[in-house]
């Protein structure tokens, strides 16, 4: 497969594979599939039904399968592994990088893990044990041990000679790591320095000592935030004694950011894990049922408010029409505030020092919008029903609901964060229920007091 080619050619080749799969042309699929990049094969496998997926998977070269397993979602990976013998799994995984093998180990059977370990040389096994010693969602779990290290007392000429003898550099190498005799990290030397300075220059004269490095136990989301903030391509990972134990590269961080974004979207919908679009119906239904049950309970709690005002609704039928308007506007206002606050909590722009000020401003924004839309709904309601009193009640209810939605949309994520509950998962349903209750009470309560 060419190492570099236009995207249009890659897309056309992928379409050719799709057409061959749809027509059931097995020989054509085998001819074309191994011309695709592993990421393109992964995309294809996630977008086709199970029977076609098996055809593509069995046609792919075993040397490509491991990289494809890394690229696909958890749900699809599970189905692909089920289609592979343990021997084929071992063949596919054994040649991967250490950090990639570590990523796949939780999905493999004990038998496959044991055979993969037997196939690795002593040094690779040692490196794998080092990576596996840390949780997957930490800097240590992300790191690879393919670091290029040098000493500060040598010249650039010596470094150049060492690199020539070493041969190929690891991917995404933009800097070399400077360590002392005990492998404690001292600094970094940009690769550009090797070609822009004289060979007699000492590493110690050029190395950067103010560096961004990560303790192996640091959560991966904080690592990703630092990569984004400082525009890093690679960064060293150290243990508690500042010994260099590995490095993290930008390709791993891109995966972290993508997976976090997907997890937030799925969690907000109450889906616990990445779904395979073509997984069995009962498995997908089970994955969603619990959250739907929670939603139903919360909806019943909100709806119970309405039952207390049945007599009022019977007398003023227009309220039944206006209730969804109040609830919808309150829900949207709250979700806007939630998005701002959750993002701020995620990137640390909201902290204990400024949280109150931020919540106050969000409340004022909601109140300001509440006044605007209160006036609008008052005019529209009065025009529809010819009842100024009803228009004023709807206006007051709108102002109360939007102000409350902004307030609770700001407060709830902060409280959940302090309780160590993911605000991206739980905030929406809690906020919506509270705002619905307030909105229903506001319009129905005011109508009961002033109109009946």
Walk me through the structure.
By secondary structure, the protein is mainly alpha-helical. The chain folds into three domains: 7-142, MgtE N-terminal domain-like (MgtE N-terminal fold, Alpha Horseshoe), CATH 1.25.60.10; 149-268, CBS-domain (Roll); 281-450, Tetracycline Repressor, domain 2 (Orthogonal Bundle). It is built from 22 helices and six strands. The chain has helices spanning 7-23, 26-33, 38-46, 50-59, 62-71, 74-82, 86-94, 98-104, 110-119, 122-132, 139-142, 156-166, 191-196, 203-206, 220-230, 250-268, 281-307, 310-315, 318-346, 355-385, 388-418, 423-450; strands at residues 149-150, 175-179, 185-190, 214-215, 234-238, 244-249. It has a three-stranded mixed β-sheet with strand order 1-2-3. Helix 19 (318-346) runs antiparallel to helix 22 (423-450). The radius of gyration is 29 Å and the shape is globular.
Category by helix and strand content: mainly alpha
Give me the number of helical elements: 22
> Biggest sheet: strands side by side, in what order?
1-2-3
User: Regarding CATH, which class of the largest domain?
Assistant: Mainly Alpha
- Give start-end ranges of low-pLDDT stretches: none
Q: Looking at CATH, which topology of the largest domain would you report? A: Tetracycline Repressor, domain 2
The CATH architecture designation of the largest domain is Orthogonal Bundle
At the fourth level of CATH, the homologous superfamily of the largest domain is SLC41 divalent cation transporters, integral membrane domain
Largest sheet geometry = 3 strands, mixed
Task: Based on Cα principal axes, name the global outline.
Answer: globular
One letter per element, helices H and strands E, the order comes to HHHHHHHHHHHEHEEHHEHEEHHHHHHH
Distance between the termini: 78 Å
pLDDT averaged over residues: 90
Tally of DSSP β-strands = 6
Number of domains: 3
C-alpha Rg (nearest Å): 29 Å
Q: What proportion of the residues is helical, as a percent range?
A: 55-70%
In terms of DSSP E residues, the strand content is 5-15%
């Amino acid at each position: 497969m060419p190492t570099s080619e236009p995207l249009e050619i890659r897309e056309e080749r992928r379409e050719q594979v799709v057409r061959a799969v749809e027509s059931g042309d097995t020989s054509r699929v085998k001819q074309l599939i191994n011309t695709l990049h592993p990421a393109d094969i992964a995309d294809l496998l996630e977008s086709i039904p199970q029977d076609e997926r098996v055809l593509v998977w069995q046609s792919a070269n075993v040397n490509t399968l491991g990289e494809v397993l890394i690229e696909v979602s958890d749900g699809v990976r599970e189905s692909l592994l089920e289609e592979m013998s343990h021997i084929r799994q071992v063949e596919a995984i054994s040649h991967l990088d250490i950090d990639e093998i570590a990523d796949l180990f939780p999905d493999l059977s004990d038998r496959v893990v044991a055979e993969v370990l037997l196939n690795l040389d002593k040094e690779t096994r040692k490196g794998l044990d080092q990576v596996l010693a840390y949780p997957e969602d930490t800097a240590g779990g992300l790191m690879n041990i393919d670091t290029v290290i040098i000493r500060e007392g040598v010249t650039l000429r010596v470094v150049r000679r060492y690199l020539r003898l070493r041969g190929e550099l690891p991917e995404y190498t933009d800097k070399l790591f400077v360590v002392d005799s005990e492998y404690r990290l001292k600094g970094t030397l940009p690769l550009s320095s090797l070609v822009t300075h004289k060979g007699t220059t000492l590493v110690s004269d050029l190395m950067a000592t103010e560096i961004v490095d990560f303790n192996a136990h640091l959560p991966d989301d904080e690592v990703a935030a630092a990569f984004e903030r400082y525009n890093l391509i690679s960064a060293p990972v150290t243990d508690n004694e500042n010994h260099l134990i590995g490095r993290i590269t930008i390709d791993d961080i891109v995966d972290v950011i993508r997976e976090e974004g997907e997890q937030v979207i799925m969690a907000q919908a109450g889906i616990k894990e990445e779904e395979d679009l073509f997984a069995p119906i009962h498995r997908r239904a089970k994955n969603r049922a619990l959250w739907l049950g929670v939603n139903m309970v919360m909806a019943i709690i909100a709806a119970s408010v309405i039952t207390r005002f049945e007599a009022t609704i019977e007398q003023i039928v227009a309220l039944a029409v206006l209730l969804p308007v109040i609830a919808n506007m309150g829900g949207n206002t709250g979700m806007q505030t939630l998005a701002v606050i959750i993002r701020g909590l995620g990137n640390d722009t909201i902290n204990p020092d400024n949280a109150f000020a931020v919540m106050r401003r969000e409340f004022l924004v909601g109140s300001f919008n509440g006044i605007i839309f209160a006036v609008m709904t008052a005019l529209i309601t009065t025009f529809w029903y010819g009842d100024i009193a009803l228009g004023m009640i709807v206006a007051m209810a709108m102002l109360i609901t939007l102000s409350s939605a902004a307030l609770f949309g700001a407060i709830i994520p902060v409280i959940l964060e302090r309780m160590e509950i993911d605000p991206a998962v739980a905030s929406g349903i809690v906020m919506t229920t509270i705002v619905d209750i307030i909105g229903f009470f506001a319009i129905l309560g005011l109508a009961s007091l002033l109109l009946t």
